[in-house]
Amino acid sequence: MISQIKSFGLIGLIGYAISVEVCVSAGLPAFEIVGLPDTVVKESKERVRAALKSTGFEFPNGRITINLAPANTKKEGSVYDLPIAMGILEASGQIKKGLVSEYAFFGELGLKGDVRRVYGMLPMILEAKKLGIKKVFVPHDNANEAAYVDAVSVFSAKTLREIVDHFVYEECRIEAMPINSWSDESEVSVYDFAEIKGQEAAKRAAEIAVAGGHNILLAGTPGSGKTMLAKCIPSILPKLTFEEALEITAIHSVAGELGTDGIVKSRPFCAPHHSASAVALTGGGVKALPGCVSLAHMGVLFLDELPEFKRSTLEALRQPIEDGVVSVIRANAKSVYPADFMLVAAMNPCPCGNYGSRRVECRCTSSQITRYVNKISGPLLDRIDLHIEMTEVGFDDITSNEKSEPSATIRDRVQKARNIQLERFKNDGIRTNSQMDNKHIKKYCELSTEATAIMRRALEVYNLSARAYIRTLKVARTIADLAGNAEILPIHIKEAVQYRSMDSKYWGKGY
Amino acid sequence: MKKEERYRLWLNFAVKADYNAQTKLLNLFGTAEDVFQNAKETEIKKLLGEKSAKKIEDCANEAYIDNCLRYLEKNKIKTAVVGFENYPFLLSNIDDPPYVLYYRGTLKSNIEFPLAVIGSRRCNEYTKKVAEDFSKRLCENGACIVSGMAYGIDAVAAKGALSTKSDYPTIAVLAGGVDHIYPMENEHLYYEIIERGAVVAEWLPATHPERWHFPFRNRIMSGMSKGVLVAGAGEKSGTSTTVGRALEQGRDVFVVPGRIDDYHCKGSNAMIRDGYAKPVFDIDDILSEYGMHIRTEKKPIREVQEKDFEFEELLIIKLLQSNERSIDELAIMTKYDVLKLNSVLTDLEFSGIIKQLPGRLYQISNDIEFSDF
Question: What ipTM describes this predicted complex?
Answer without folding.
Answer: 0.75
